[in-house]
Amino acid sequence: MSRAHLSVLTLAASILVAPLLVGGLPQAAAERPQVELKREAGTPLSSAEVKLPTRRTVTTDRFTMVAATWAGEDPGVEVRTRTEGRWTGWVELESLADGPSSGEGNEAPDGASDLIWVGDSDRLQVRTERTADDLEMVLINPGVAAADDDPVPPAPAPESPGVESPETTDQTPTVTTSATRRTVPRPTIYSRKQWGADESWKNGSPRYTDMMKQVHVHHTVNANDYRSWQTAGILRGIYRYHTKTLGWFDIGYNFLVDRFGRIWEGRSGGVGNLVQGAHTLGFNHNSVGVAVIGNYETRTASRTVLRALADISAWKFDRGNRYPVGKIWMTSTGSDKFPKGKSVYLYKVDGHRNTNDTSCPGRYLYAELPKLRNMIYHRMYS
């Protein structure tokens, strides 16, 4: 990426002697103000929202997640972090294409990026493609909580018959007129309590839709090397960013799937209900948003992840009494790709990029969607 206007901010957990680069030229670091991540009341999570200084080397606490907000045009933010003494490569903070319907998040900044998990880090460097207005870096450390112990799977729901679903590798569902519809068992879903959600962070009440028509598949653009016990902390960080920084009612996704194949409850309101999320700007209505925790622009989706996606999607389609195969006409309520009132012919199981100007859910996961649709069909029909 060309950097005609390059700004670099270094945030460190100890006093630095390296100068800050602005416009590609070193500037003397006359002051080194301390930036301290503040502990959120009632939770181990701590965070800070740091205005980008013009020429300073800044000290800060350790963090594991980072995002950016700004006013005006997207400045094209890239970051790299120092983890265990080594700098990572530069990573672009993609502009956030998730978002709520009108009436939620009215206090949100003009622009914001995805929140990414970078692992336990002690320094951050930021560079921008264009001059940024009111650029702030959001640093989050979700801390350690009892919820971080690998949770005990919840007991199966009473309606779960434990039926195994056949799976094939065909890209297109084999739909037959003789196929028999069956009840899909509720998959194991880890609750909000199990990932340590602080319910006091919510601001408002859940909204419900009257019909289930689509599943939108996402990825969270996190690093892919997180461990199983770190999943709960990642969820707390996303929840904090969505509610406290962006001003949303709750975490945007209805469900999240980690790389170990575990399904986690996202937005509150009841996993069996048709809760309207804030995951697919312009198309939140009559849909469910499921995000895989990881970056699937850089790696393939495992069979374990695809099975979990198929399990939760088939269960939601079954509860909504909806046929999962094919396409459907949906009307946009206004997104960065389709104006309000525009009718769009979409797959019933689609990727975020089909409705918004984004690469989500990553090229590798997006390529698996035909297979995923097939897996969902075979869970619902024998």
Report the CATH superfamily of the largest domain. Peptidoglycan recognition protein-like
What is the number of beta strands?
A: 23
Oligomer: single chain
- Structural shape: globular
Class based on secondary structure composition and strand pairing: alpha/beta
Order of helices and strands: EEEEEEEEEEEEEEEEEHEEEHEEEHH
Proportion in helices: 10-25%
Distance from first to last alpha carbon: 50 Å
List segments where confidence is low: pLDDT < 50 over at least 5 consecutive residues.
1-8, 12-33, 157-170
Radius of gyration: 21 Å
Give the class-level CATH name of the largest domain: Alpha Beta
How would you describe what is shown here?
This protein has helices spanning 231-245, 303-319, 363-367, 369-380, and strands at 9-12, 20-22, 25-27, 34-35, 38-39, 46-51, 57-60, 63-71, 77-83, 86-87, 91-92, 111-112, 116-121, 123-128, 133-141, 189-190, 214-219, 255-257, 263-265, 287-292, 327-331, 343-347, 349-351. The protein has four helices and 23 strands. The strands form five sheets. Strands 1, 4, 7, 9, 10, 11 and 14 form a seven-stranded mixed β-sheet that branches. The protein starts with 8 loop residues before the first strand and ends with a helix. The protein is globular, with a radius of gyration of 21 Å. With 382 residues, it is an alpha/beta fold. A hairpin with a 2-residue loop joins strand 2 and strand 3. The protein folds into two domains: 9-141, no CATH class; 146-380, Lysozyme-like (3-Layer(aba) Sandwich). Residues 96-115, 144-190 are annotated as: Disordered. It comes from Nocardioides daedukensis. Belongs to the N-acetylmuramoyl-L-alanine amidase 2 family. Residues 187-335 form the Peptidoglycan recognition protein family domain. Residues 160-188 have a biased composition (Low complexity).
